Prior knowledge:
With about 140 residues, this protein is of the alpha+beta class. Helices cover about 35% and strands about 35% of the residues. It contains 4 helices and 6 strands; from the N terminus they run βββααββααβ. The longest helix is centred in the middle third of the chain and has 23 residues, at about 45-70.
Amino acid sequence: MKRNATATWSGTGKEGSGELTTQSNLIKNLPYTWATRFENAPGSNPEEIIAAAHAGCFTMKLSFLTEKAGFKSDSIETTCTINLENGAITNSHLVVKAKIAGCSPEQFAEMSADAKANCPISKLFNCEITLEASLV
């Protein structure tokens, strides 16, 4: 399986602008600029898309692990924060809250750590990945 996305950019790094498009076209011509990336201006940026990918990948991996352990997840919600410092992603911080009947906090911590270490996006990163996991 292969997936792709395309980025375009016109102009200089600081004054130019670009667009991001995914293969599925769910993201199509999404604009981004220096300001949306480095100055918190309204709009998207590559790091936000990476955060969505990591949150989604981790959550699905955790769901597979809970099922494998004999549990049914009522809900799993993960927020991912990507930290970009000095031109490098230095941290991906995951905060997961889940409702899983019959699952102990220890079992959940073990499955969450496994998902953090083994989801494909985590394996892609060359940065620290931190995690806060809680059952609700």
